[in-house]
Write a structure and sequence with these properties.
single chain; alpha/beta; 10 helices
Length: 222
């Protein structure tokens, strides 16, 4: 995870160190700091990621305010898990697609990690609709619909997400990656094989292999 809250040189130094070590990815938490992805704070670190081909993961984290929300205090972990795994990731993706950084860094690859995929198609259609109506005046200016940048540069991991698989025709099937999230309880361990068999039942074998093996192997070079 990249160090945040200090000078931007911290990010640059850690990205360069991770690349020298042969690591395959670095991570930013969704919730902190609240700095736009197109801010100069991130720019050089993102440029190095593009140059090296190392994907940037965006994962839930840094969202301490969740645990002081009245809704969390009254209803507990279900609110926290939905907020951190879905809502915070939705905000992060919407911001990423709207801020222009993927347009200016067209080879930067980003992974929305552990957020599922069932919500992605609906978001892309909505944000594209907004772009179609308003892109002639809205800032930052995007030359293409946001979904183009998403399908070109954003990858998604998912676990127990049959609804998401039903929307696969609206997504880039080459950028979806199944994961077990071992050993967390919101993952599929110890019934991962059974979950795959059930959720992937109507998928062609070659598509299932892409999602379970080949896409991740290609992205991470393993």
């Amino acid at each position: 995870m990249l160090p945040l809250g200090g000078p931007p040189e911290w990010l640059v130094d850690e990205v360069e160190r991770a690349a020298r070590m042969g690591l395959r990815s670095v991570m930013l938490p969704t919730g902190f700091p609240r700095v736009s992805y197109n801010d100069a704070y991130y720019r050089r670190a993102f440029e190095i990621l593009q140059e090296t081909g190392m994907p940037l993961a965006i994962h839930n984290g840094g969202n301490e305010e969740i645990f002081t929300m009245p809704a969390y205090e009254q209803t507990g972990s279900p609110v926290g898990i939905i907020e951190s795994k879905l809502i915070c990731q939705e905000r992060a993706l919407c911001h990423l697609l709207s801020c222009g950084v993927l347009q200016t860094l067209p080879k930067l690859q980003v992974v929305m990690a552990e957020a599922g995929i069932g919500w992605v198609a609906a978001m892309l259609r909505l944000i594209d609709h907004w772009w179609e109506d308003h892109h002639r005046w809205a800032e930052p200016r995007l030359d293409e619909p946001p979904s183009l940048y998403c399908k070109r540069q954003v990858w998604f991991t998912f676990e127990d997400d049959r609804p998401g698989l039903l929307t696969r025709e609206c997504l880039n099937i080459d950028h979806l990656m199944w994961g077990s999230d071992y050993p967390h309880t919101e993952g599929t361990f110890p019934v991962s094989r059974q979950r795959i068999e059930k959720d992937f039942a109507d998928l062609p074998a070659e598509v299932a292999r892409k999602l379970v093996v080949e896409n991740a192997a290609r992205l991470y070079g393993i």
